Amino acid sequence: MPQLGLLCRKAWAAALLSQLVRPPHAVSIRTVGGHSQIAEAVLTSQLKPREEKPNFVIKVPKGTRDLSPQQMVVREKILDTVVSCFKRHGAKGLDTPAFELKDMLTEKSEENFGLMYDLKDQGGELLSLRYDLTVPFARYLAMNKLKKMKRYQVGKVWRRESPAIVQGRYREFCQCDFDIAGQFDPMIPDAECLKIICEILSGLQLGDFLIKVNDRRIVDGMFAVCGVPESKFRTICASMDKLDKMSWKDVRHEMVVKKGLAPEVADRIGDYVQCHGGISLLEEMFQDPRLSQSKQALEGLRDLKLLFEYLTLFGIAEKISFDLSLARGLDYYTGVIYEAVLLKPAAQAGVESLNVGSVAAGGRYDDLVATFDPKGYKVPCVGLSIGVERIFYIVEQKMKTLGEKVRTSETQVFVATPQKNFLRERLKIIAELWDAGIKAEMLYKENPKLLTQLHYCEDMGIPLVVIIGEQEQKEGTLKLRSVASREEVAIKRENLVAEIQKQLSLS
Questions:
Q1: Is 134 annotated as a binding residue?
Q2: φ/ψ bin of 235: left (φ > 0), alpha (ψ from -120 to 50), beta (otherwise)
Q3: Which of 1, 162, 194, 454 sits a CA distance of 20 to 30 A from 204?
Q4: Which range has the worst mean pLDDT, 44-48, 61-65, 193-197, 447-451?
Q5: Which residues form the Aminoacyl-transfer RNA synthetases class-II family profile domain (predicted)?
Q6: Residue 124: DSSP 8-state
């Protein structure tokens, strides 16, 4: 029996060898005992032609971007300024899912059907990525039966539109929203929202800015007295909203040719959209023979007059312009609307004027929550959104022009040694610093060169270096070095934390 087994193995090996030396097209393996399947697997893997790696360009999807550590530092500073302002005005933080039920997102935004990213149905639900933070907030209020809330939210949103990267427009971008929900006396929350925009834009030092203000009731009233069919109000409003990116001639062409509006009606609208000013323009519109016939428009004008009184008390009326060309294309706005634009972006930095569109916007949306509430309960809301991506673009260009360097870490102290075999001592020191809440680093090498360590500190902008060597160890001391001045002082080992905290408090 053992001889027979040996013969079977020899036969199988011979058969396998004979197949390997044949041309690939002639390969044919006969079954030899129980080894035929193994032989087939071996030959298949050996003879299968090697697949070429597909030829593709490594890139991020169109309309998106990576942010480097340097860019993240700048971005976080902007967000800190924005969020600290929101908190100063008493807002609470909120977060909602990146995607929502598609029906919910399309409830009040038919014009934005084509802008949404739909997700494949994987669990019996049709979902889409959120295109703003306002609709999810309204859903949250209705779902939790909340009648009053002041909230802020920072998160990414997605819109499937043609990106204009050079103007800070992306398909994936971050929004910072502040909203006041609840039944309050007219125009008080609205005035606070405009005050917040002024505080943020002033704090970011972007240059001179102007906030355009209008009211959707005035817009609708204007459409009505100009002869726009009510069925076309929303679509014509969407066209009018493009006036910050297109000339009136192009917008008029879209209204007439693409959306079927009568030319004479478009011309009447054109007479209004060129009007902008302050209180005097408001008074003039009260006397306008056409606009004064609209009850809706008169309500909007009265509220704007009250709003300007409050803005004067806040000391920001000179930053506000009543602008009849402002429309805000989203369907859910019901009252006051506003948009902030930079008049001379980064002019003080000496860079070329940049047209990035609005850097903040918002308005009143009193009916949105009711669309999600089973009983149609209304929760009046007003809010604003800060255009982080556009602001970031301006700040980034300004910093490039000034040649400003950005520290990518917040390390305060570096632990170094000029000698070998001091890894364990460095680990003890850095652990002590971490435990004291001090931001510290060291090189991940057992015996690094002192010059390498000091160069790292200079490159990274680390202000202090703690140095431990044989002499210091014998004397129970440490050297504390200032990276900027290169001065060194000896300190007692037990006073390390206290001395560093003192130095950091003085810097």
A1: yes
A2: alpha
A3: 162
A4: 44-48
A5: 63-418
A6: S
377 is in an annotated binding site: no
Establish whether 159 is an annotated binding residue. yes
Residue identified by tokens 């402002």 is: 326
Buried b (16+ CB within 10 A) or exposed e, 273-299: beebeeeebbeebeebebbeebebbbe
Would the pLDDT of 210 be above 50?
A: yes
Q: Is residue 207 part of a domain?
A: yes
Residue at 205 is within a domain:
yes
Q: What is the CATH number of the domain that holds 422?
A: 3.40.50.800
Residue-number span of the structural domain to which 209 is assigned: 69-345+356-402
**Residue 311 labeled ligand binder:** no
Q: Is residue 19 part of an annotated ligand binding site? A: no
pTM of the predicted structure, to 2 decimals: 0.82
What's the pLDDT tens digit per position in 155-173? Answer: 999 998 776 655 667 899 9
SS3 170: coil
Q: Is 179 annotated in some ligand binding site?
A: yes
301 is in an annotated binding site: no
Asked if residue 46 belongs to a known ligand binding site, the reply is: no
Domains in the chain, number: 2
The domain spanning residue 232 has which CATH number?
Answer: 3.30.930.10
Same domain, 339 and 433: no
328 is in an annotated binding site: yes
Taking the C-alpha atoms of residue 305 and residue 296, their distance in angstroms, rounded to an integer, is 15
